[in-house]
Amino acid sequence: MCQSIRSSVFRGLVIGMAGLCAGAVFAVSPDPVESARDDALARQGIYLPYAFENPTTPPTRTLSPDEAEAVLQRDWLFQAEGKPLQGRAAEEIRWARRLADRLAENPHSPDLSNEVAELDLLEQRLAEHIVGDGPPAAGEGIQPHWIWFPEGRPAEDAPAEARFFRRAFEVPVEGTERAELRITADDSCSVYLNGAHLSNHAGWNQAAIFDIQQHLKPGRNVLAVRAENSPYNGKNPAGLIACVTLLTANGAPVRIVSDITWRADNEETPQWQQPEFDDSSWQAAALAADGGLGPWGHRLVNLGPTDPILAYAEVAPAVKDAYFAVRRVKRRIALSNPVVDFSKLLFIDQPYPRGRVNDTHESIHRMGITATPGGRLLVLDGLHPGGDVRLLAPKEKPGSFWRPSLSFDAKRVLYCFKAHDEKAFHLYEMNLDGTTLRQLTESDYDDIDPIYLPDGHILFTTTRGNSHVRCGPFIYSYILARCDADGGNIYLISYNGEPDFVPSLLHDGRVIYSRWEYSDKPLWRLQKLWTTNPDGTGTAHFWGNQSVWPDHLSEPQPIPGSRRVMFSGVGHHDWWSGSIGIIDPDQGRDFPHGLTKVTADLRWPECSLPPVDPIEAADYHSAGRFTGYKTALPLSEEDFLVSARGEGGKFRLYLMDVYGNRELIYEGIHNVWHAVPIKPRPAPPQPPHRVVWPGTGEDRKPVEPGVFFSPDVYQGAPELPRGAVKYLRVFQLDYKTYTTWKKTYRHSGPAVSIVQEEGVKRILSEVPVETDGSVHFVAPAGRSLFFQLLDSDRRCVQTMRSFSGLMPGERRGCVGCHELHSTSPPTEQHGGLALRRAPTELSPPSWGTESIGYERFAQPVLDRYCLKCHNGDAAKFDEPDLRLRPGHGPFPEPYLTLVGQAAWHYSVPADRPGCGIAGVIPVESMDPTMNDPKALTTLRPMQYLSGASRLIELAGSGKHYDVKVDPESLHRLIAWVDSCGVYLGEEEVRALGDPDFPGIERLPIRPRVATAPVIERP
After folding, report:
1. Is 390 exposed, middle or buried (0-12, 13-18, 19+ CB in 10 A)?
2. Picking from 245-249, 564-568, 721-725, which range would have the lowest pLDDT averaged per residue?
3. Helical pair 317-334 and 113-129, crossing angle rounded to 10 deg
4. Each residue of 959-1012: pLDDT tens digit?
5. Are 527 and 551 within 8 A, CB to CB?
6. Can you tell me whether residue 122 is helix, strand or coil?
7. Average confidence (pLDDT) over 32-39
8. Is the per-residue pLDDT at 342 higher than 90?
């Protein structure tokens, strides 16, 4: 089922890591009954966490000098990218000289004349004494093919079933020095070698790469694969492609590739994966496509980095020695950089998460239920693979980590940790020497990614809001929270219902983070940068909220001495394939203004190719076929630490610059992420506190409201005539604390709307706008709010497609009817007529703050005023049928007809009478490619909703069959349209009941709908 021929949305890619390194320290529980039950539930869309059997923390030891040198040499060969080594050495000399010249401009740099002289001698040696590199690198000869069971044309269409494959091959008696398997299938495969299960792999467009050395034996070996083609409604190609590369003891590479010598069968036979199984009755595999053709369109050998030892196995030793000598000199130059003013680092070495669905997803990967034990919190003394390494945590139980934080004086470490036998991540703190360990938080909710604040508080992200992602009922939302230094007085300071990601501190004391939102906007590309004060006030857009490229700007970090911010641009469904970029907010707030890419060798993942792709350094060069960059920490405008995914799908830590030079710092057992230099650093200034904290626990008091004001709602909307706006409507978007845990329609559960994955909405207030356009009103704190401008009939003429909010006691100014991100917020001294009076108190409509639902707000109006004519009479076939009746999925008619083609993944025909007359925003269908920024930009006034609604015009004009709806009913109908056509309100959601399914008790927080909690924020 080849995704590239159907959709631009990438499926989550699962990299098979079992057997990749000798340090694999966990196994999934082998209980066949429990495993079969959980797998069956997963096929129904109910995902439960894996249980790990006897997890351990891998031993921590310092490499010997010879081991460390071997690690460096292997990485240097990897960085040579399979190119002729003599030519690569010459390039490295040129890059090393440029680096030395750059460092020489810094008066704090040491004298590098000796290193430059060494480069001159090495260049002469290469020119005079070494000729040619020997034969081509391994991998340029025989190529694997896509194969399948011989049935029809599998590259075009194949049954959605499993097929079975075997290939026997010989290993010389003297054995092998290196052995690698690279494999993938459309859509998934289970891989066995000599009867041992290596791993499962899903995602045809990413190869699983295995080090199979430990599984081989001299003589006959058998590779067995179960490949499965998943169901798809349409043409459904299927294929398997594989390559085994052996480096024999005599140094000769041998390759075994997928071709017609493989055996295939269409039925599972007992013991089929065992080497002694007789497969003589199996058929020869059929060639589905050449390795670079067919619907897959690429070669397996190019999917990820080639084993560097195999690649250069037959290169002359003299050439390798010269290349290594060049790299040693270049490394001395790089580490002489004055910005490298530290010798110790703090970081985590953590396995990839593991889940039954999309565990590379931007949010799913961070959940406690996908955490894989075996992680380590480490201190490295010496910037070298052979540096002294010390284990800080875990102290006892094996478990998992995410981003740690170092105190400003570099004496204490703050980190999050989930023990393998606990349900959630908690916050911990210890001294850097490992003493005085204390647990700060405790609950069944996850607390992750903490940072120290200048005033002694701690900021982190947490699932304590009990909120679930609207399009992923099994995805918890991590939102910003704040607590005391001892973990007490926890407050939720974000009004997001979707996740907030990996916060850090800017130089001015604000917190910068990425947030996911889709308030009447497509859900795919809105994971951009925002800032807030440490107390949650002043939350503001930083960059990209109307931009497609990059998809998700993750892990932002300020560049020293600059207003610019470095980040990793990752994919909505692929957290690991990031490319490093820089944002300059002084150059603009949306693509392409202010954006440059550092790692020019990788495109921004998942989203389409951008129309322009500005590069930070025009003379950037690649150095290794890396497939992802993460957790970059800038040291200067040109230098940074970064984790890069290279050989074996593993992240290693590098010192890198914007020109492409990189030196390996450390290679862990798993993946090295979130490295921080161990050195004191000044604390940024502390913004003033503006919050009236309500207290926690028994001391909690009612939450004080805040105040919004704007001097002119017309600013930024020149198409709105002066005087047209009479009211500002305050909508509340409820947090999705309810979940069915499984998808009930498309991605949601329960399905609140067919227009998009929606949340419950309610109108809190409709406040007057003064004649000069100013407005001043009270609003509740801790709520997710958005605003609409209304005319004298309370019809929406402009809507806000983002959300905002207030902390208790916060006073906040807004500019215009939508956020003008380059404009400073107004002051109260320039607030217009509205600021000359007290703020308007909450003034809800006549029905109060009741949530909006179609069958309570719209259908009764239709029943009362419209069914006399619009009753489905066949004689009036050209009139819409407005009777309430079954429709599609959970949605009835005439709801579907009124929404029309704004419905996502299901639309009534455009020529159906009444199609789309409600005028709701076609949120998802506005951009079917999910890569067009026009779907994210500010809409023109009176383009959608009640101000342009044919339904509201017919109901309120009195010209349609002399029907004129009474003001109260018309107001309710307008409210439904302006909610963007939601179907369910809170009352209907809670009536659905609570979910129940086998294994629900294993989830950290029990999913609920009818009894979903109301969580107070802050």
Report:
1. middle
2. 245-249
3. 160
4. 998 999 999 999 999 999 999 999 999 999 999 999 999 999 999 999 999 999
5. yes
6. helix
7. 81
8. yes
Q: Where are the beta strands (DSSP E) in 108-174?
A: 146-148, 162-171
Q: DSSP secondary-structure letter at 904?
A: S
Strands 388-393, 376-381: parallel, antiparallel or unpaired by DSSP?
Answer: antiparallel
Angle made by CA atoms 782, 483, 708, in degrees to the nearest 5: 25
Work out the number of other CB atoms within 10 angstroms of the CB of residue 181.
23
Q: Look at residues 819, 11, 68 and name the one whose alpha carbon lies nearest to residue 357.
A: 11
Q: Answer whether residue 4 shows pLDDT above 50.
A: no
Q: Which helix (H) or strand (E) holds 392?
A: strand 388-393
Question: What is the rounded CA–CA span in Å between residue 16 and residue 351?
Answer: 11
In percent, the amount of the chain with pLDDT more than 90 equals: 80
Q: Which long-range contacts (CB under 8 A, 24 or more apart) does 264-269 make?
A: 264/147, 264/148, 264/149, 264/150, 264/163, 264/164, 264/165, 264/166, 265/149, 265/163, 265/164, 266/149, 266/151, 266/161, 266/163, 266/164, 267/164, 268/162, 268/164, 268/226, 269/164
Q: Encode 736-754: b = buried (16+ Cβ within 10 Å), e = exposed.
A: bbbbbbbbbbbbbbbbbbb
Report how far apart, in Å, the C-alpha atoms of 433 and of each of 282, 378, 388, 397, 809 are.
61, 11, 14, 19, 42
Q: Which amino acid is at 338?
A: P
pTM of the complete model beyond 0.85? yes
Q: How far apart are CA 616 and CA 595, in angstroms?
A: 9
Distance CA 740, CA 353 (A): 23
Residue identified by tokens 């974000």 is: 494
Report d(CA 170, CA 278) in Å as an integer.
17
pLDDT for 494: 98
957, 926, 961: which is closest to 940 by C-alpha? 926
For residues 969 and 865, the answer to whether their CB atoms sit within 8 Å is yes
* 270 alpha-carbon distance from chain centroid: 40
Report DSSP state, residue 714.
Answer: T
* Least confidently predicted of 23-27, 184-188, 562-566, 589-593: 23-27
**Is residue 506 helix, strand or coil?**
coil
Pick from 806, 823, 786: which is nearest to 690 by CA?
806
DSSP annotation of 439 reads: E
- DSSP H or E segment with residue 516: strand 511-516
